[in-house]
Amino acid sequence: MSTLVKRQKGRLSNQLRSIEAQLGLLNKADGSAKYKQGDSSVLAAVYGPSEVLPKDEKGDRASVQVVFKRRDGKPGRREKQNENIIRNALEPIIMTHLYPRTAIMIIVQVLVDDGSILSVALNACVLALMDAGVPISTVISSISCSIVVDENGSQTLLTDPDLSEERTSIGETYFVFDGHVVAKTGEGGLVSSVTSGLLTDSAYTSCLTASRSGSKSVYTFIRETLKRKPTTVMAPIENIIFERDEASSATNGSDFKMEDEKEESKTFSNVFMKPI
Amino acid sequence: MKLEASADVIRKLHPLEFYKRFLPEGIRPDGRNLNKPRVTVISAGSLTTAEGSALVKLGSTSAICGIKAEVTIPADTEPQCGKLVLSVELPPLCSPNIQRWTDSVEQNSSLEVQIEDILLKTNVLNLEALCIKDSSAVWVLYVDVYILEHDGNCFDAALLSVLTALTNVKLPEVEVNEEQIVSIVEGGSTQSLELNHYPIPLSFCILDDKLLVDPTSEEEELSSTCFTIVYNNRGELCSLYKPGGKHINDDILEECKQTTLNRTEHIVKLMKQANEAKK
Amino acid sequence: MDIDKSLINTSLLPGDIVGTVVQSTSTENEGKQQPVRIGPGLTLLDDTLVAVKAGKLRYDTLTKRYFLENNQKRYICAVGDMVVGTIKETVGESFRVDIGTAHSALLDVTGFDGASRRNRPDLFPGDLIYARVTVANKDLEPEITCLSSQGTARRDWITGQSVFGPLKHGFVINCSLGMSRRLLDPNCELFKQIGDKCSFEAAVGMNGRVWITSEDSRDIVLISNALEYSQHLDDQGIEKMLNTLFKSR
């Protein structure tokens, strides 16, 4: 499992796809984030703390509600399960005791599903929560890994799989790590783990380690994104892009190149229509 | 004035404090050690109207599973495969926290997806074994699980009940005539289902930084995180489900994986004994 | 409390440690230890001071406290804040006012300077008021009042000269909390620049609402638009924008 294999589209087996994010795109939402990993993209919106329906009201804390929507198809059990997983990861870190009898609503809209969609959704939600100014006790980041088998029967681990890789995998894993714990100690910090398919112990441990180092890159990206958010006014939305460093073979924060979108003149004429 | 409160009152008003008196001693209010699961009771074939059934009790938590078999036309994409339709319900009678059927919709969906993923994605059952006639008739198994009492750890009880029920399913011998009508052969044999492997679960929770095995509902509510590990009798990991909560270290995870692995043999034996007893 | 001073004016993420509680046993240090005051965005978790929002760590020399500066749209009530509110309904002896928080605020019917049971403003649902927050607790409904605060000149509500009270005519725009704070900053040139072009009256609420009024309603529209656009522009852009907007006037 330690050999690095070249995949379709030129990635190595332990490399993440390039990451892109935009904050504050929705006018009405308190916080919003569009997060893209490769072609998989998700738009997350946060509303709250705001009014809550009496049946959901909790006397001592805010009620966290998650809605997960796909582009097509009727919402079914998988979507409910995804809502459950996302809510279970976010509710403990949101400081809900500060806002009793209110609701914090997190809406996840899948724009394009090209694999690892639950990880992409969770990362988008974390960015949206910070954009909304909802107090959270730590930053969490998520990465998925798949195990594929080739004709010889040997197993390969693929970090951040795309849809075609997921479809041919024999086992899938989804992990969420606490960014601070991982940055400080380099180990532990496992917040969420969901697996499917049959995995050997060594396969699971490899996925865990690979995802943990991948989550460090996502954590660094999140930090860079929020650094660019202006503190005084809502400046024009900036497109922050992390490009995969083709030459490098490892995945850690330093291997990404930051690319700010070309600075188009952020003048008045770009922002509204000219008066007649 | 000194108020003397009974243990029950403290348990209601300050449940975390109540538990903190027990945990440092390595014991829980119900007398168990921190790493001891509750007594598992498995009984098979309790529902005579169903083709397969099982009742599983983990302490007070009880789950009953009934499997009914019907004949249907297979899907175009998989003409040789039977189908499995799973439904898990937590009715209002199982817990005071569930007052209406709609309160438990999210939990039901979550349990259904978890169990279905284990059954289908790890290939527990060969769906080809349910084929009657290629492209025209297959068996569909309607697997219904009802949690009769929810005292923590419904998932373990539900999964074990499904596995036991699957092992005692008796499908009658059928034949298909020219008009594509399927009828039961009089005096024919019965077909049982072979499971490729037995995924055995064990759930854990972390309460006040201490690891508890097989938590009760009270312990689940007070815990900072809950998770379930499923290993099969071949030592393969079928599922590790930790949706969220406080982060844990790798060594705790390893300890839990080992505990789950050590228990698989015992549970598979219990299941086999239950099926023998039914005969 | 040991604060990491190198982090001041840098961007922090939730969970970043700002300082740790230092347990000092020697008596000589006790006299030297000054209490550390913290403001929004920072909280004490298990003996460490951590950031809970994404923003820049600042130290305010005036109030001598550390806080996290960030921009958000959702207003959370705090005592002393001046807010622009909309009356929702009359409930007994109070008005229920929408100030943008999850729960509506209560305003006593006689909570106006010089008001008594018989002499009080007649407010209907939809009317605007400028008030200050008196009670802001997470477990209670917020309470506001239009009585002038201590130290400010007290003018009866009837005269229309009071600082707090009903706001007649005009228009309210929603903006982010950061924008409100920027407008209330004495160094902010925006109101002066707009004032050079036309005369107006404004009330800035810390709840992300700004009330504008002017004699000519076209001016009200122009000023509201100017404030909306200035949220997204830098100083150069604002100048250009104002010139273009008021050119036709």
UniProtKB/TrEMBL annotation, chain A:
Pfam families: RNase_PH. GO terms for cellular component: cytoplasmic exosome (RNase complex); nuclear exosome (RNase complex); nucleolus. GO terms for biological process: nuclear mRNA surveillance; poly(A)-dependent snoRNA 3'-end processing; rRNA catabolic process; rRNA processing; U4 snRNA 3'-end processing. Residues 256-266 have a biased composition (Basic and acidic residues). Residues 250-276 are annotated as: Disordered. The keyword Nucleus applies. Keywords: Exosome, Nucleus, rRNA processing. The keyword Calcium does not apply. InterPro entries: ExoRNase_PH_dom1, ExoRNase_PH_dom2_sf, PNPase/RNase_PH_dom_sf, Ribosomal_Su5_D2-typ_SF, RNase_PH. SUPFAM superfamilies: Ribonuclease PH domain 2-like (SSF55666), Ribosomal protein S5 domain 2-like (SSF54211). Transmembrane segments: none annotated. Residues 15-135 form the Exoribonuclease phosphorolytic domain. It is found in: Nucleus. This is Exosome complex protein RRP46. It comes from Acrasis kona.
Automatic annotation (TrEMBL), chain B:
The keyword Secreted does not apply. The keyword Amino-acid biosynthesis does not apply. Its main location: cytoplasm. GO terms for cellular component: cytoplasmic exosome (RNase complex); nuclear exosome (RNase complex); nucleolus. It is found in: Cytoplasm; Nucleus, Nucleolus. GO terms for biological process: exonucleolytic trimming to generate mature 3'-end of 5.8S rRNA from tricistronic rRNA transcript (SSU-rRNA, 5.8S rRNA, LSU-rRNA); nuclear mRNA surveillance; nuclear polyadenylation-dependent rRNA catabolic process; rRNA catabolic process; TRAMP-dependent tRNA surveillance pathway; U1 snRNA 3'-end processing; U4 snRNA 3'-end processing; U5 snRNA 3'-end processing. It comes from the Eukaryota. Residues 38-172, 197-256 form the Exoribonuclease phosphorolytic domain. Keywords: Cytoplasm, Exosome, Nucleus, RNA-binding, rRNA processing. One of its GO terms (molecular function) is mRNA 3'-UTR AU-rich region binding. Belongs to the RNase PH family. This is Ribosomal RNA-processing protein 43. It comes from Acrasis kona.
TrEMBL record, chain C:
GO terms for molecular function: RNA binding. Coiled coil: none annotated. Keywords: Cytoplasm, Exosome, Nucleus, RNA-binding, rRNA processing. The keyword Cell membrane does not apply. Residues 170-217 form the K Homology domain. The keyword Cytoplasm applies. It comes from the Eukaryota. Residues 36-74 form the Exosome complex exonuclease Rrp40 N-terminal domain. One of its GO terms (biological process) is U4 snRNA 3'-end processing. It is found in: Cytoplasm; Nucleus, Nucleolus. InterPro entries: Exosome_RNA_bind1/RRP40/RRP4 (IPR026699), KH_dom_type_1 (IPR004088), KH_dom_type_1_sf (IPR036612), NA-bd_OB-fold (IPR012340), RRP40_KH-I (IPR049469), Rrp40_N_euk (IPR041054), Rrp40_S1 (IPR037319). GO terms for cellular component: cytoplasmic exosome (RNase complex); nuclear exosome (RNase complex); nucleolus. Pfam families: KH_6, Rrp40_N, RRP40_S1. Belongs to the RRP40 family. This is Ribosomal RNA-processing protein 40.
